[in-house]
């Protein structure tokens, strides 16, 4: 698959144009909107679907805990977590110390299980950088031996 490089505020439009150039007509449903804001994890999954990049959303990686990954590539053992922050409002789960500590435990368990982790925010999703990093990580991952 050809890598797509996008920059600036028109990242999503560039992703759609790249998909069309690859002969794919984007049919994925648009990302969900919550309280007049885009759900960034849904937006990332939508971008990946439009580009034909196989992935798993809300993937449960731990057998005992209920932890889920926003986006996962199980065969490559690559996890993508979308970090959200509430600017100028009530602190979100990731901004409170308890939520932050729980995320640290989740990320440690993930790495101990042999996974690689990419953390992104809405900005990297909007400008296409997240997709670019995922593509680079997947191409590197294909050269690594499988985990034991």
Q: If you had to describe this structure to a student in words, what would you say it looks like?
A:
- It is a single chain.
- With 148 residues, this protein is α+β, with helices and mostly antiparallel strands.
- It has one domain: VSR Endonuclease (Endonuclease, Chain A, 3-Layer(aba) Sandwich).
- It is 38% helix and 17% strand.
- The longest helix is centred in the C-terminal third of the chain and has 16 residues, at 97-112.
Total of helices = 5
By CATH, the superfamily comes out as VSR Endonuclease
Q: Distance between the terminal alpha carbons, to the nearest Å?
A: 27 Å
Mean pLDDT: 79
Q: CATH fold name, please?
A: Endonuclease, Chain A
Contiguous runs where pLDDT drops below 50 for at least 5 residues: 1-9
**Helix/strand class:** alpha+beta
Shape: globular
| Strands in their spatial order, largest beta sheet | 3-4-5-6
Number of domains: 1
**Could you say what the CATH architecture is?**
3-Layer(aba) Sandwich
CATH uppermost class: Alpha Beta
